[in-house]
Amino acid sequence: MSGRFRKEESERKNGGQKEEEEEQQEQEEEEEEEEEEEEEEEEEQEQEEEEEEEQRKKERKKERKKNNVLDCLCSLSLDFSQAGQARSSHAVLRPGRGRSGRLPAVNLSSAVVASCWGVARDCFPQAWCQLNMVEVILKLVERSPTTSCKNIHLFTIQRQFQKSVLVH
After folding, report:
1. Are residues 51 and 80 in the same domain?
2. Where is the composition biased (Acidic residues) (predicted)?
């Protein structure tokens, strides 16, 4: 009897150990799965953060380019005070108030205007035409008393603007 009892006792212990080992193994597998899930979530979160950072960089770059265009426009060389107030007083630019209803002539460096158009096209390949250059130039002309190079008609600028819009 004592031999049989020992045998049963050892089987119970072994069976209990096997169950404990199986439970421990299952628990380890569950922990591994949880760790893998956590790692995947962390990777997804990192990827989302990287994408958001990329988007912010792109937006900052666009904003810088837009500001460069505006800076370029603001540096346009315009002059009405030194060109003789009597001769160019009609050119305190109100569209359509020049002779024969056309836009008045403006003292503007054509090279600067051309570079503005170039910068604008580079900065806004599709949407740059939303920045209405003619309006911006008109506003700048109204408040800018600086020296200039050549006479260029605003009508020419407007025509160039419209052509550029058609091209893009």
Report:
1. no
2. 19-53
